[in-house]
Amino acid sequence: MSDGHALKQEPPALTITQVAARTGLSADTLRYYERAGLIERVARTPHGHRSYAASDLGWLEFLIRLRETGMSISRMQQYARLRSSDASATCCGEAPRRAATSLSVRSGVKPPSGKNAA
Questions:
Q1: CB of 42 within 8 A of CB of 13?
Q2: What is the pLDDT of residues 38-49, one digit of tens each?
Q3: Residues sharing a CB contact under 8 Å with residue 84, sequence separation 6 or more, in sequence order
Q4: What domains are there in the chain, each with its CATH number?
């Protein structure tokens, strides 16, 4: 009894191996980032394996960019807290832009602008 409308399906969950391959981070680093509070607690399968949402990749890419600037883990944790404290922010939405703006204010570097910014 289909009414001709396709049901919107969520993207499949990603394993830690898939996320490591896509981001270039090791599985150990991904586990550390979770323990350190840089990423929110990752969902688990019934067998206890990590199950990443596709949306987690954007935040991980943002963290990678912060590390590439030489930013310390403790400073990155401040950005993670900023992200998690803003209930209206979505992953890879407003929080990374605000974090980039905050970073630019402190460093004197203008944040990127436009559709593909942060």
A1: no
A2: 999 999 999 999
A3: 40
A4: 16-107 (1.10.1660.10)
